[in-house]
Write a structure and sequence with these properties.
Number of helices: 14
CATH class: Mainly Alpha
Distance between the termini: 56 Å
Helix content: over 70%
Order of helices and strands: HHHHHHHHHHHHHH
Number of strands: 0
Radius of gyration: 26 Å
Largest sheet: none
Oligomer: single chain
CATH architecture: Orthogonal Bundle
Structural class: mainly alpha
């Protein structure tokens, strides 16, 4: 056992060293920076660097810009996340349906936006949203609707970014849902059909419960990705208009690389890390509850089968 442990550590050592060098060391350095007032003056003169403790965090919690950015980020996650999951599930069901031809082609077409860089997609959609020459307003004019300033109106800017993000990201979740759909035993649908269940009841009572672990996994990935909203507002709106699309990560970027408040930027990063950690813990709790419920249902079904089995009288 000692020889095996030593061999395992020897084989894992290069990967562990790289993880420690490029993940844990920067994380610890960022945590230490968040406890200082590191700024552009400290870059030139390290004697200007001072330890301030939790002052950055207290100032951040009292900053209206941070709360506005957090509100915008939560709006993006709460609205865009479920919408993206719903579109992904709908696309997966459409591609997985019986009788659909060219399934491989549809999977490729739906997945193509995922492989495109977010900056290129944001630039293209920015021209689609142009208030005068955009294709979207041109289509609205064809049905008698006046032009809308999609990215210049605070009421429309975030929904416009959400629409673009859903189109960009739904292909990846679609592939995950397809894998989950292909793992559902066909006998479950056959049994439901014999019991008189139509397609909708099969979807509600067979597909959705069986896809629950996959849905939790997709929800976690989507939430983590959407909490890190940055490139879309940075390219399309620069956080405007009137700060209606400024996200937490964009605020971190502005504090760190526009105003050179590195300590404050690091504090923003760790507040976001705490939020994501809470989301992950909530997802883990939901997964445990789901597993416990499934085990209870399996045990009850086993007991019911045993009770329904006819007993043989001794001769």
């Amino acid at each position: 056992m000692r020889t095996r442990s030593a061999a395992a550590l020897l084989l894992l050592a290069p990967a562990l060293c790289l993880i420690g060098l490029f993940f844990f060391v920067p994380m610890v350095a960022s945590l230490l920076l968040s406890l200082t007032d590191f700024d552009i003056y400290a870059v030139a003169d390290r004697s200007a660097l001072r330890f301030v403790g939790l002052r950055n965090y207290s100032a951040l919690l009292g900053d209206s810009l941070f709360w506005n950015a957090l509100r915008n980020t939560l709006y993006f996650v709460v609205v865009g996340g479920p919408l993206s999951i719903a579109v992904s599930l709908g696309a997966a069901l459409a591609v997985h349906a019986r009788g659909v031809r060219l399934k491989g082609l549809f999977r490729t077409v739906f997945f193509l936006p995922v492989t495109t860089t977010i900056v290129a997609v944001a630039v293209v959609w920015r021209y689609l949203y142009h208030p005068r020459f955009g294709l979207l307003n041109y289509a609205l004019a064809g049905v008698g609707i006046g032009p809308i300033d999609w990215l210049g109106d605070p009421d429309w800017a975030m929904p416009s970014i959400i629409a673009m993000a859903v189109w960009k990201n739904f292909g990846f979740n679609m592939i995950v849902f397809l894998a989950g759909l292909q793992s559902i035993p066909e006998r479950l649908y056959e049994a439901a059909s014999l019991d008189g269940a139509g397609r909708w009841r099969q979807f509600v009572h067979v597909t959705l419960p069986t896809l629950a672990p996959t849905t939790l996994f997709v929800t976690l990935l989507t939430a983590i990705g959407y909490f890190q909203l940055f490139a879309e507002p940075y390219v399309m709106t620069q956080g405007g208009p009137a700060g209606s699309t400024r996200s937490v990560v964009l605020l971190m970027y502005e504090e760190g690389f526009r105003w050179w408040n590195i300590g404050m930027a690091a504090a923003v990063a760790f507040v976001l890390f705490a939020i994501l950690l809470g989301v992950m813990l909530l997802q883990a709790a939901l997964r445990r509850m789901l597993s416990a419920r499934n085990e209870t249902q399996d045990a009850d079904a086993s007991v019911g089968r045993e009770a329904a089995r006819p007993t043989q009288e001794p001769a």
